[in-house]
């Protein structure tokens, strides 16, 4: 909307999203919101499609794994069918999960991944892998213009407070005066990208000439114990954590090689975790109806 496009249509089934996040645009003459599930066909006239649909939090995508696979397969097929019919450019938000529990570190786009095809995460990671396959086959077979981003862990304001992923969990727990739940062993790593950097990368990819896949993420890598310590330092100094069980097939490390994004898109993240965590915490604080714990 801020880019000045004169027609923006959002289709969402609100399984994990909320109307509240787009409230400021509702009623704007250039903006249209459709309650729609992409596993069903969608008939609209558009020039560009950002295909973002699919729950990305393990808790949500494991809740109804068959539906998650349908979203990745049928949903992507429908959006590619739409792109083919109206000759729109199609951008897929794929994921670092296509690398599975990676045997190469950091991960480049050339790495083919180490994924369990029958595990509890496979509805998501194999789902996104077949979504990439569909995108490249529509490109090769039907000439559809595609753009594929592989998104690494992203966080920021307006994230669902009960999303279940680690950054939102730790911040919400710390603010509520609960112990942060560090899943064992706590030495597993992730690299966290602030939402505004991610949006900038996605728009550059859509507007550029490269199909991808292109890694989008922040190469700053942290263990979960380091993340808990950062939340304590920057958000709630009195916060503490406890170790809890982990879930199967949790990747032990993850860090993007973003050389390609730098060279092709002229993109790299600007917001560090140290800067981003307090921005997210301020939004959570407001939505939780809490006052600033640091000033108490
Ligand atoms: N599709 C859609 N919107 C459109 C065009 C197609 O949702 O504007 C769906 C359509 O229902 C189909 C899928 O996209 O199930 C794939 O379309 P495609 O034309 O590639 O396949 P076909 O219809 O030939 O099976
Ligand atoms: N994790 C954690 N505590 C939580 C939630 C997650 O320690 O309350 C860990 C989890 O074991 C994983 C990492 O945080 O190693 C990232 O998990 P998340 O669900 O945020 O995303 P993923 O990268 O696994 O999709």
Automatic annotation (TrEMBL):
Catalytic activity of the protein: UDP-alpha-D-glucuronate + H(+) = UDP-alpha-D-xylose + CO2
Cofactor(s) the protein needs: NAD(+)
Pathway(s) annotated for this protein in UniProt: Nucleotide-sugar biosynthesis; UDP-alpha-D-xylose biosynthesis; UDP-alpha-D-xylose from UDP-alpha-D-glucuronate: step 1/1
Protein EC: 4.1.1.35
Matching InterPro entries: NAD(P)-bd_dom (IPR016040), NAD(P)-bd_dom_sf (IPR036291), UXS-like (IPR044516)
Lineage: Eukaryota, Viridiplantae, Streptophyta, Embryophyta, Tracheophyta
Residues annotated as domain NAD(P)-binding: 13-278
One GO cellular component, as annotated: cytoplasm
Keywords from the named record: Cytoplasm, Decarboxylase, Lyase, NAD
UniProt keyword Transport present: no
Subcellular location, record wording: Cytoplasm
A Pfam family per the record: GDP_Man_Dehyd
Primary localisation category: cytoplasm
Similarity comment: Belongs to the NAD(P)-dependent epimerase/dehydratase family. UDP-glucuronic acid decarboxylase subfamily.
GO molecular function annotations of the record: NAD+ binding; UDP-glucuronate decarboxylase activity
One GO term of the biological process aspect: D-xylose metabolic process
Role description: Catalyzes the NAD-dependent decarboxylation of UDP-glucuronic acid to UDP-xylose. Necessary for the biosynthesis of the core tetrasaccharide in glycosaminoglycan biosynthesis.
Protein's name according to its UniProt entry: UDP-glucuronate decarboxylase
Sequence intervals crossing the membrane: none
